[in-house]
């Protein structure tokens, strides 16, 4: 059933496993001129999926550096060598469960589903929804956030499939004309055949928005830093989630406050866990105004792009 309500949808890309001898688990494998992990990020972004979480493990720093300018949140599975894909999925689900209404989940080795498939899926009011191509189920999987606590409690050995079967909610399927939902990177020849079609689907305007005086002092990267400080109450944790050095983060914050001429963050000391960092009232208001401005500009760019191209 299609939903009449506008709901927020986040995305999880699991890219934590070791690269196999085959192509299967390599997030940095290129199909066309871009890597599979970047291709999925671009697909999510075109469909309006936000926030996007990438769970890393093997070659984490390389992957995080590769995506540092794309506004995604990084979570690490430090136990990736001794854990399963489901353990990485749980890290992402735990982070997003209170930040959006639904979550789209995919492993990194299935990179060719289209934005149109995602847009069709998020229009439906289902708690568990998978796309299907000619009777075959594929990725990504849409999960209602209200199911996440039950999924996180599952400790069986059947992974995400077992968790879904265990929660007692029937999964639904939606038919799509999108072969890309089926093929992982072990089928590299088939993915190469789908490349031209997929590139047409991810064609979109890429608009960078910044605020400047004599020099740039606020952009999407600074925005993400403030969002993560607001969420974690820690500059250090925020840096960890966005592949940013601690000193660079404070340099960005100091410049922002100097240009705005008011405090954006405040530190509160003490407590058994040490001090915490919060956005000030003025900092919160500035962030909200920027996000509204950014949303308006992106919507205008999207409308003009569709009209002209």
From TrEMBL:
Gene3D superfamilies hit by this protein: Spore Coat Polysaccharide Biosynthesis Protein SpsA, Chain A (3.90.550.10), Winged helix-like DNA-binding domain superfamily/Winged helix DNA-binding domain (1.10.10.10)
GO terms for MF: nucleotidyltransferase activity
Pfam families assigned: NTP_transf_3
Residue intervals of the MobA-like NTP transferase domain: 11-165
CDD domains linked to this entry: GT_2_like_f (cd04182)
InterPro entries, A to Z: MobA-like_NTP_Trfase (IPR025877), Nucleotide-diphossugar_trans (IPR029044), WH-like_DNA-bd_sf (IPR036388), WH_DNA-bd_sf (IPR036390)
Top-level taxon of the source organism: Bacteria
PANTHER family per record: MOLYBDENUM COFACTOR CYTIDYLYLTRANSFERASE (PTHR43777:SF1)
Full protein name: LysR family transcriptional regulator
Protein species of origin: Clostridium beijerinckii
High-level lineage: Bacteria, Bacillati, Bacillota, Clostridia, Eubacteriales
């Amino acid at each position: 059933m299609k939903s009449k309500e506008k709901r927020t949808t986040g995305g999880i890309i699991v890219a934590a496993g070791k690269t196999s001898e085959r192509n299967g688990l390599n997030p940095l494998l290129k199909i066309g001129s871009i890597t599979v992990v970047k291709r999925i990020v671009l697909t999510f972004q075109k469909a309006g999926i936000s926030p996007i979480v990438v769970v890393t493990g093997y070659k984490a720093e390389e992957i995080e550096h590769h995506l540092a300018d794309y506004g995604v949140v990084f979570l690490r599975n430090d136990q990736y060598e001794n854990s399963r894909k489901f353990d990485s999925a749980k890290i992402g689900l735990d982070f997003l469960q209170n930040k959006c209404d639904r979550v789209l989940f995919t492993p990194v080795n299935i990179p060719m589903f289209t934005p149109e498939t995602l847009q069709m899926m998020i229009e439906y009011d289902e708690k568990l929804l998978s796309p299907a191509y000619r009777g075959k189920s594929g990725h990504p999987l849409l999960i209602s956030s209200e199911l996440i606590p039950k999924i996180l409690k599952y400790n069986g050995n059947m992974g995400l499939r077992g968790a879904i079967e265990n929660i007692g909610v029937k999964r639904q399927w939606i038919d799509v004309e999108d072969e890309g939902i089926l093929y992982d990177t072990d089928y590299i020849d088939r993915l190469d055949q789908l490349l031209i079609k997929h590139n047409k689907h991810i064609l979109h305007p890429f608009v960078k928005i910044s605020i400047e005086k004599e020099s740039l002092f606020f952009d999407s990267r600074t925005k993400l830093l403030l969002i993560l400080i607001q969420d974690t109450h820690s500059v250090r944790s925020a840096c960890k989630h966005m592949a940013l050095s601690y000193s660079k983060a404070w340099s960005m914050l100091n410049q922002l406050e100097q240009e705005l001429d008011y405090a954006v963050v405040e530190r509160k000391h003490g407590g058994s866990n040490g001090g915490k960092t919060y956005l000030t009232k003025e900092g919160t208001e500035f962030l909200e105004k920027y996000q509204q401005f950014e949303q308006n500009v992106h919507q205008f760019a999207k409308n003009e792009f569709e009209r002209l191209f």
